[in-house]
Structure formats: C-alpha cells, structure tokens
Amino acid sequence: MPTPIAAETLDPLDPVIARLYRFALSVTAEDYRGWALQQLQSLIPHDGALWGSGSAARLKFHTVTVTGLPPEFPQTLEATSKINPIVPEILKRLDTPVDMTSVMPDAQFFASDLYRKSFAPYGISRILSTGHLDPRTGMYSLLTLYRKRAARVLLQNGFNERFLCAAGRVVCIHRGTAHRHRHGHNGTE
C-alpha cells in the first residue's frame, strides 16, 4: 500500500496541472483559454490575464482571450509592441517567465510612454509574461498575467520567485493541454 504524502510536501501547482489535464476535453474550445486562465488564478494571484496566439513574423494576435481586462486591451498592447522592451526579452527567453521589473526598473517603466499608453489606462503595475514559439509553423503563444496597482507598496505586489517558477511550469502545461484540446484526444495515441 502506498505511503500517504504529507500535504506540506505537495507542490501547490500539482492540483492545478491535474485539473488542466483532467478537464481539457470537457471544456468547449471557445471557453478553454478563459477557463484555464481562471484555474491559474488560484495558483498565481493576478488581476488580469491574456493568452494569445498568432504569427511570430507579424506579432499580431490571431486568437486572444483576456480575463479581468476590457476586450480592447489586446489591440492596445499590439499598438505599442514596437516600444515595449519586454517583447524582445520574451523572444530571447522563450518558455521562460519574464517579469517586466527584470527588463525595466519601476521608475523608468512608470515614466515611460509605454506605461502611459498601454498599462496606466487599465491600472496595471506588474507584468509577468511567457512566450512560446512553434518553429515548424512560425506561430507563437503568449501567456501574460497582470497585477493592478494596489494600496500597498508596489514591490510587495510584484511576482516573486515562487510565482516565476510556477509560471514556468504552467506554460509547458498550457501548451500540452491546448494541444490535447485542439486535437481532441486524451494523450493516448
């Protein structure tokens, strides 16, 4: 008989991963991304999220799902992609979470045109983003979590190392479950 594992030794990400896999085919294709982003909320607290896919050559979304942000947010983001310093960092560090604070110091970020045009109108103060590129098709997938300015000190409202590690594991999982969902199988060939 297997020995029970103490609850404190379980990775909090494991139940989320199990849910993403277990229910991938029971959620409609139209609702899957929004549902998956909601599942992440219990693991990595955020105020808004974006999961988009598109052509890497154009950096334009073909499909995009946002939660906690208005529907026009992806267009605002695309319009400022050329001045957004996190974009080249995401492309350099594919499949690795990139926190905006590692790309641009807060003082510079909050004083930038990028912030005024793309993030201030939505109250966004923290950005954690991960990109994936399929070299066969040239399609990218972008998963970004946002936090809004809170009453507490901004540094306390950032994404800490635990969240960065969890986001790194989640991006691999979201690719796998999205693939399962698109192809309608349970992983057995």
What is the first-to-last residue Cα distance? 31 Å
Radius of gyration, in angstroms, nearest whole number: 17 Å
User: What is the residue-mean pLDDT, rounded to a whole number?
Assistant: 78
User: Any low-confidence stretches, pLDDT <50, length ≥5?
Assistant: 151-157, 177-181, 183-189
Q: What percentage of residues falls in helices of 4 or more residues?
A: 40-55%
Strand share of the residues? 15-25%
The main sheet orders its strands as 2-1-5-4-3
Shape: globular
Our count of helices gives: 8
Structure description:
This protein has 189 residues and is α+β, with helices and mostly antiparallel strands. Helix content is 40%, strand content 21%. The chain has helices at 13-22, 29-41, 73-79, 86-92, 100-103, 106-110, 113-119, 161-183; strands at 48-55, 60-67, 98-99, 124-134, 139-148. Strands 2-1-5-4-3 form a five-stranded antiparallel beta sheet, sandwiched between helices. A hairpin with a 4-residue loop joins β4 (124-134) and β5 (139-148). The longest helix is centred in the C-terminal third of the chain and has 23 residues, at 161-183. The two termini are 31 Å apart.
